[in-house]
Design a protein that fits this description.
Length: about 475
């Protein structure tokens, strides 16, 4: 499907979505098999890769199978199988459009594995890549601004180690150790560092780390707030396996989690400017282990998971007011995924329903505001071919006859960024990450966004090198530039 047709399909799908009531869930097509603790990755073609997981219905089965969700049709179809069965693994979309699948567990209660593989959307197949330095399961995986992937924690007992995957070589290499073992969550911050939080234990100090890709080291940052000193019982402290989400103002929300049978309603905010955590509004109902979350383009955060009554629960966090909305029903309690789709809706797939049932059903959440994926402008006006991209120094259009060169600054024009947001877009040129120098409104033009980037140093020359922009995990259309 070409970019022009794709834009039309997305517009139609968004129109149909508007007919749904805001803040509701609607059933969509079913997975090809029941899955929980699988992964869901939005691909550059707009489809969602669902990989692995397990089914606990009678016989415990870990899946090597994978499938694709097509948002315009609402259907799932099988794609190639992984090289090995996995659950509680990680899946990371790489700048070249492939997906890195790493680690995970083989069987119920089993340890992690070191193997990793790549999914290629062009062929629909998985192929082995280099193995991690140690076996890991329930680790974190974060795509860094240099295009490499930080893998941290995981395994049993929890590891203090971390490593880096380099797509250019297909290998993993150790990086600095964390200050303590374990990595419950990892959140990429606007400055390119990574905030790592770990399992919260009541009545104990709970530390967080910052990873600096420039030095390859972790350093201690502020402590997660100990609510047990407030006299509230049970204390509303974020528990093990909480949600973390980078907000549009550049701070990080940490919410929910559990301690045994205690499900937390606590939430707090990490401010990178101060390195400190502070209290924000409590959830209206607690959400426990293994929840899923999505940052909506309107700036709110959707969190879904299990309530203390063993129901599926969902809440919205509003950063402007610092409050959560009243809860509403979602089908899954844990082990499901939440994926922001190109039209602004959210896909919830699979998961667990009490007591002991893995489900194949899926839902679509319709937010109050539907915001589609970002758009890069083209000279033709149809979103295809040569992009509306200028040499920053001369203000001339980049073209085959006036090509860009490695290391120079470019101005890219498009739309779809959130006004005033601290979250930078990610620009990929020729399958490589470009350093973002500036992003925001284009001076003097209403509704137009400008992103200035520095060309990757290792860029390969060509007359039609592809360029795309990823924002809030969603890819734009693809345009081209000439590169010398």
């Amino acid at each position: 499907m070409d970019s022009f047709t794709a834009c039309g399909v997305l517009a139609l799908h968004a129109t149909l979505a508007l007919a749904q009531s805001a803040g509701t869930f609607t059933a969509t097509g079913s997975l090809t098999r029941p899955r929980e603790f699988h992964t869901a990755t939005l691909l550059t073609n707009g489809k969602v890769l669902i990989a692995g997981g397990f089914s606990g219905n009678g016989t415990f089965i870990t899946w090597a199978s994978a499938e694709l969700y097509d948002p315009p049709t609402g259907t799932f179809t099988a794609t190639g199988n992984m090289t090995t069965p996995r659950y509680q693994h990680t899946a990371t979309l790489l700048p070249n459009g492939k997906v890195l699948i790493a680690g995970g567990r083989f069987q119920n209660g089993g340890t992690g594995q070191a193997s990793a593989e790549l999914y290629d959307p062009a062929t629909g197949t998985f192929n082995a890549t280099g193995s991690m330095t140690i076996p890991r399961g329930i680790q974190t995986a974060t795509l860094l601004n240099n295009g490499k992937v930080l893998i941290a924690g995981g395994t049993y007992p929890y590891s203090q180690t971390a490593e880096i995957y380099d797509p250019s070589t297909g290998t993993f290499a150790a990086t600095g150790d964390m200050t303590e073992a374990g990595a419950d969550t990892a959140t990429l911050l606007p400055d390119g560092k990574v905030l790592v939080t770990r399992s919260v234990q009541l009545y104990e100090e709970n530390h967080a780390d910052l990873y600096d890709p420039a030095t390859g080291t972790f350093t201690r940052t502020g402590d997660i707030i100990d609510f047990s000193t407030t006299g509230e019982y049970p204390p509303a402290i974020p528990g093990q396996d909480p949600t973390t989400m980078l907000l549009t103002n550049g701070t990080v929300l940490i919410a929910g989690g559990a301690q045994g049978d205690f499900y937390s309603s606590g939430a707090e905010i990490y401010d990178p400017a101060t390195g400190a955590f502070s209290v924000t509004g409590k959830m209206t109902a607690a959400i426990g282990y293994w929840q899923a979350a999505a940052l909506l383009p309107e700036g709110k955060v959707l969190i879904t998971g299990e309530s203390p009554s063993r129901d599926g629960n969902a809440e919205l966090y509003d950063p402007v007011t610092g409050t959560f909305s009243a809860p509403f029903y979602a089908q899954s309690q844990e082990g499901h995924t939440a994926t922001l789709l190109p039209d602004g809706t959210v896909l919830l797939s699979g998961g667990f329903v009490c007591c002991g049932y893995t489900i194949a059903t899926t839902q679509i959440y319709y937010p109050a505001v539907l915001v589609p994926s970002p758009v890069l402008f083209s000279l033709s006006g149809d979103g295809r071919g040569p992009g509306a991209i200028l040499h920053a120094l001369t203000q001339q259009v980049v073209s085959t006859s006036n090509p860009a060169v490695a290391g120079e600054a470019l101005e890219i024009y498009g739309s779809g960024l959130i006004d005033g947001s601290a979250i930078p877009p990610r620009v990929v040129i020729g399958g490589l990450m470009a350093e973002v120098l500036f992003f925001g409104k284009a001076p003097g033009f209403t509704g137009l966004n400008q992103v200035n980037v520095q060309m990757p140093g290792a860029i390969a020359p060509g007359p039609s090198v592809p360029v795309r922009m990823d924002y809030l995990g969603r890819p734009s259309n693809e345009v081209t530039i000439g590169v010398q």
